From TrEMBL:
<dbReference type="InterPro" id="IPR011701">
    <property type="entry name" value="MFS"/>
</dbReference>
<keyword id="KW-0472">Membrane</keyword>
<dbReference type="InterPro" id="IPR050382">
    <property type="entry name" value="MFS_Na/Anion_cotransporter"/>
</dbReference>
<dbReference type="InterPro" id="IPR036259">
    <property type="entry name" value="MFS_trans_sf"/>
</dbReference>
<dbReference type="Pfam" id="PF07690">
    <property type="entry name" value="MFS_1"/>
</dbReference>
<feature type="transmembrane region" description="Helical">
    <location>
        <begin position="234"/>
        <end position="257"/>
    </location>
</feature>
<feature type="transmembrane region" description="Helical">
    <location>
        <begin position="82"/>
        <end position="102"/>
    </location>
</feature>
<feature type="transmembrane region" description="Helical">
    <location>
        <begin position="311"/>
        <end position="329"/>
    </location>
</feature>
<protein>
    <recommendedName>
        <fullName>Major facilitator superfamily (MFS) profile domain-containing protein</fullName>
    </recommendedName>
</protein>
<keyword id="KW-1133">Transmembrane helix</keyword>
<dbReference type="InterPro" id="IPR020846">
    <property type="entry name" value="MFS_dom"/>
</dbReference>
<comment type="similarity">
    <text>Belongs to the major facilitator superfamily. Sodium/anion cotransporter (TC 2.A.1.14) family.</text>
</comment>
<feature type="domain" description="Major facilitator superfamily (MFS) profile">
    <location>
        <begin position="17"/>
        <end position="432"/>
    </location>
</feature>
<feature type="transmembrane region" description="Helical">
    <location>
        <begin position="277"/>
        <end position="299"/>
    </location>
</feature>
<keyword id="KW-0812">Transmembrane</keyword>
<feature type="transmembrane region" description="Helical">
    <location>
        <begin position="170"/>
        <end position="191"/>
    </location>
</feature>
<feature type="transmembrane region" description="Helical">
    <location>
        <begin position="335"/>
        <end position="356"/>
    </location>
</feature>
Amino acid sequence: MTVAKRSVFRIEPRYVIVLATFLATFTAYVERVGFSIAFTDLAKEAGVDESVKGTVLSAFYWGYALSQIPGGWAAQQYGGRIMLLLCFACWSAASILTPTNARHASAIILARVAVGVAQGFLIPAVHTVLSQWIPPHERARAVSLTTSGMYLGSASAMLVLPWIASLFGAASLLKVVGGLGLAWLVLWLVVGRDIPHRETVIPLSTLDHRPGIGGSGYKGRPAPTPYRRMMGSAAVWAIVVNNFSFHYAFYVIMNWLPTYFNHILKVELNSLGGAKTIPYLVMFLMSNVGGWAGDWLILKRRNSTATARKTVNTLGFLSSAVALMLMPGAGAHSVAYGVVVTTLTLGCLGFSRGGFSVNHMDIAPKYAGMVMGISNTAGTVSGVIGVAVTGYILDMHGGADNVQGWYTAHAVSAAICIQAMLVFNIFARGERLFD
């Protein structure tokens, strides 16, 4: 009886790993949104203009872009567990030590670059850990759940951190998010492991090896990465372009959302209560819905993998482009309307991840981490460009109070989304290309 009870209530170790990696992306995005909220208030107090604010907000992505591919190499060489430990230790310390006087822009920029470099090791390390622990037939759901922690983390930060700032000041947020990073570090010290113990390895006979669905399982070290073939593949570049475009739109909204609420909707974040979390909560849900929709099209509707990915991708990017153009006009309607169109934009972007973001596992399951590193580098560069360019566009139109500046900035994002959708429809593939 004792053995039976243990088998009923025992949690599979791989599920613990997935939960821990979900909390890792959750915590990292609490930090990113937390800094945006904190610096928006600190810059307002110091009288910092929008272009300087944009430069500071984009500094994170310079560091983040630099460490994506090195992060993939380091995780492969030293293991995902140790790289996640180093990642969280470094960015947590850098956050806690960030200057709180917005006039010291140069020092803050250096701190944000340091946080970006450290967090750049996160996604490659997470993919390395998941590739070791999760069998092929569970990887899509595991990756979708893990990465959706980004959006739930953003929603939670939008809900809780403005309230903390109102009680203890905006500067306190830098210490709070750094402390959360250290808390996750302790969790990972307890549960984190690179390679499953022998009894947790799933027998290869239980894995699905059908073309386009199965994989190599736990078969040891992969063959050398075919970098030259990857860089010459139009299908890989279709993923890269879409990652760039997705993150251009997403990072612009994420970093400029506090300013959008303040200057277009004419409200402070802490006055919106739970409503301000709705966009990120919906994005969290829709990112999972997009993944399930793609699988449904393949398994139930018998669509090819390429058709399924392109369908989800097209619906997500087209609808988000339309929603982006509705956001600037929200000031002429109501706060509720602004929250609705922001929610629509982020929800549609989240849905699109069921297209391009899963496709690297379709075409290169053995090298998915490296393809992700390459495409995520492009996505990070788009954050540097998009956040800074938006600041300059707003300044060119006289500041964030001028709605024409927001229309121009969002038109750029919408156009980028549409061209990404077209590129993916033309060049994306669904079959394995490198295995």
